[in-house]
Amino acid sequence: MKHQAAIALLIAILSNFSNCDYCPVSAPTVSVVSKCPTTKTEWDEAASRKKCSHMSAKCGNKSPVYHCLLNQWRNETVEVCASNWYISGFCAIYNTEEMKVIDDFSRDCTNLTGGPCPTRYISTDAYMYQGCYGKRNTSTSLPSTDKQVHVSTDCTSPAALIAIIIVLSLLSLILSLLLVLTCQEKISKSVMYSQCMRLRKQTPRKEKGNKEKRPKSPH
Ligand SMILES: *[C@@H]1O[C@H](CO)[C@@H](O)[C@H](O)[C@H]1NC(C)=O
Ligand SMILES: *[C@@H]1O[C@H](CO)[C@@H](O)[C@H](O)[C@H]1NC(C)=O
Ligand SMILES: *[C@@H]1O[C@H](CO)[C@@H](O)[C@H](O)[C@H]1NC(C)=O
């Protein structure tokens, strides 16, 4: 019972994980460039140089395509072959840790002067919104809170996946231990004993209920 619930949970997390645009094959294609294309022509030229279409590896079911974006710290522009992503009115960035193209939720680009973006655009059109390529002044140190880029909530990052698994394992271990201890302590008292047995029967059901709710919450 318990194991089945755990396996179901794991499958749910893993399938969620593969549906998102986490793209490990993009990581080795990252190269730092001094500047990104500013026009469609330049973008196409850069794309044919990068040869993303020659890659046989895929990001889930999508083919990696050419991108030139700021990284998550906004201190470097990188060229990368990654799956495209619909951006919802924010600047697009490539996160080298999450290994995918994401919205930089700290920067709305719908009212950028000299090239506002629409509320929905495909990440390969990023060159049209040059206001998004402004690097941070890298010589001044930034407050630590400013470095954070919001992680998109519609998919599970590898770190989050591992954290969830560890937390769940610990929880179930602690719960089992508590149950055993409680039962041993009260075994002499017959009234308590019967209650304990009832508890024992109830607990796996409760635990399963909790676990099944978890995979749905990221959506
Ligand atoms: C960009 O920022 C990251 C994180 O602070 C740092 O590790 C990296 O060296 C920086 N790169 C440049 C070119 O400043
Ligand atoms: C963009 O629009 C928001 C909301 O209308 C406003 O608060 C913000 O100051 C604007 N930014 C610029 C750069 O115009
Ligand atoms: C960054 O800011 C410092 C101090 O404000 C300034 O001296 C320096 O020229 C700036 N660097 C760039 C690249 O803008």
In short:
With 219 residues, the chain is of the alpha+beta class.
Please tell me about this protein's structure.
The protein has 219 residues and is α+β, with helices and mostly antiparallel strands. It has two domains: 21-154, no CATH class; 155-205. Helix content is 39%, strand content 16%. It has five helices and seven strands. It has helices at residues 2-19, 40-50, 144-147, 158-186, 190-213, and strands at residues 31-33, 65-71, 77-82, 86-87, 90-95, 100-108, 121-122. Helix 1 (2-19) runs parallel beside helix 5 and helix 4 (158-186) packs antiparallel against helix 5. Residues 15-19 and 140-155 have low confidence and may be disordered. Bound molecules: 2-acetamido-2-deoxy-beta-D-glucopyranose (3 copies).
